[in-house]
Amino acid sequence: MKIWSIIKAEYLINENAAKNWLFLIMLLVMGVSIINLSHQADAKVKKIVRLNKEVKALRSEYVELKTKVIKKKMASRVIQKMTEKGFVTPKKQPVKIKLKTKK
């Protein structure tokens, strides 16, 4: 008989029904909030994964650009580009100018 009263939901219409309704509403609110928090956590995990991929892509682009800059700054390349434009390398070394500073 106990199972039949649960199936009929008599616990929601008897004299102590107010307590039961409050308990069910509390369970419902807690369930909805747990579902909402789990969805937020999933969204944050997806955002972290996306940002990690973006960081890896930007890091590889940085390394690629850095190697290009290093290759362009090499002395042999600079000399080659300058000779193409008509400049020649000097035969003697430049003179270093030293200034005496007062202490």
Explain how this protein is built:
By secondary structure, the chain is mainly α. It has one domain (2-84). The chain is 71% helix and 0% strand. The longest helix is centred in the middle third of the chain and has 57 residues, at 17-73. The protein is rod-shaped and about 110 Å long. It starts with a helix and ends in a 19-residue tail after the last helix. The relative contact order is 0.04.
Please outline what is shown here.
Helices cover 71% and strands 0% of the residues.
Topology:
Blueprint (H helix, E strand, L loop, with lengths): L1 H6 L9 H57 L1 H10 L19
Question: How would a crystallographer describe the biggest sheet?
Answer: none
Can you give the mean pLDDT?
88
How many strand elements? 0
Series of secondary-structure elements, N-terminal to C-terminal:
HHH
Q: Distance between the terminal alpha carbons, to the nearest Å?
A: 106 Å
Structural class: mainly alpha
Unreliable runs? none
Oligomer: single chain
Percent of residues in beta strands? under 5%
- Counting DSSP H or I runs of 4 or more residues, the number of helices is 3
- Helical content band: over 70%
What does the overall shape look like? rod-shaped
Q: How many whole angstroms does the radius of gyration measure?
A: 38 Å
Number of domains in the coordinates? 1
